[in-house]
Amino acid sequence: MSIELDSYGIMEGINEVIVTTKSIDDRPNAAPIGLIRHCGRLTVRVFNESHTCTNIKDTGLLAVNIVDDPVVFVQSALEDLDKEKFEFIETGTGINFPVLASSNGWVIFKAGIKEGNIATIAELQFITGNIKSMGIRPVNRGFNAVIEAAIYATRYKVFNDETFLFKIKSYKDVINKCGGRSEKEAYSLINKLL
Ligand SMILES: Cc1cc2nc3c(=O)[nH]c(=O)nc-3n(C[C@H](O)[C@H](O)[C@H](O)COP(=O)(O)O)c2cc1C
Fold first, then answer.
1. pLDDT band at residue 94 under the 50/70/90 scheme
2. Does 15 sit in the ligand 1 pocket, CB within 6 Å?
3. What number of other Cβ atoms are within 10 A of residue 32's Cβ?
4. Structure confidence at residue 1 (pLDDT)
5. What separation in Å is there between the alpha carbon of 33 and the centre of ligand 1?
6. Is the CB of 1 under 6 A from ligand 1?
7. The listed CATH number (3.30.200.20, 2.30.110.10, 3.40.50.720, 1.25.40.10) that belongs to domain 2-70+79-131
8. 77 C-alpha vs ligand 1 centroid, how far in Å?
């Protein structure tokens, strides 16, 4: 599997992606999740209360979407994506699975489940994938800061702890200095949705 993963840009460490899943009654869902590649294994660790976790347990499947739009990260973290943001992929094995229409590439995986008290670990096996665009992209500190702020925003929603609000505010200056229009839009969406 390592050759396929490299070609999707999924490298050793934690890769921030949007995971799409579907419920048993076929409703698509999207959420940012850290995709962990470590010592030849590929896993995700998802909190048990999330829709993503329920859907993975119910279907045994997930799709990893490689996305570089900060607004999509924030929307999928803090609200439900509109149905038209998804497309359904017929894999040829009878599986019809949602991916994000705007992704740069996606991979559908079979998920082997290991349940825990707080979170569930899913070990992933490649089924099929598609690389849609191979643009090169320098590091943008504003983009990275939006990702950090979005993580704290999801924690604030769960724990309602004001410390997370201070952390979110601490990224404002770097987003204004280094981010482009999308990063600034994503950051104001975080503040609007909290
Ligand atoms: C960049 C980023 C990475 C995240 N990584 C994870 C993760 O690895 N596991 C997890 O359970 N939640 C993670 N989250 C939080 C979920 O995306 C968030 O709780 C989301 O609302 C879950 O949505 P759902 O209930 O539709 O599945 C992450 C959030 C962000 C912004």
1. confident
2. no
3. 22
4. 66
5. 5
6. no
7. 2.30.110.10
8. 6
Fold (topology level) of 141-193 = Methane Monooxygenase Hydroxylase; Chain G, domain 1 (1.20.58)
User: pLDDT value at position 62?
Assistant: 97
- Give the pLDDT confidence score for residue 127 in this predicted structure: 92
Both tokens assigned to 93: 């094995």
As a whole number of angstroms, the longest Cα–Cα distance in the chain is 49
Closest atom of ligand 1 to CA, residue 153: 31
Residue of 54, 154, 171 to test ligand 1 pocket, by largest number of atoms within 8 Å of CB: 154
Question: For ligand 1, is residue 21 a contact (CB within 6 Å)?
Answer: no
Could you state, in order of their start, the residue ranges of all structural domains in the chain? Answer: 2-70+79-131, 141-193
Q: Residues with Cβ < 8 Å from 7, sequence gap 6 or more?
A: 131
Is the pLDDT score of 92 beyond 80? Answer: no
- Taking residue 112's Cβ as centre, other Cβ atoms within 10 Å add up to 12
Tokens 């952390």 locate to 167
pLDDT tens-digit profile of 145-172?
A: 999 999 999 999 999 999 999 999 999 9
Q: In a mutational test of the pocket of ligand 1, which residue from 17, 33, 45, 55 has the highest number of ligand atoms less than 8 Å from its CB?
A: 33
End-to-end distance of the chain based on CA atoms, in angstroms? 39
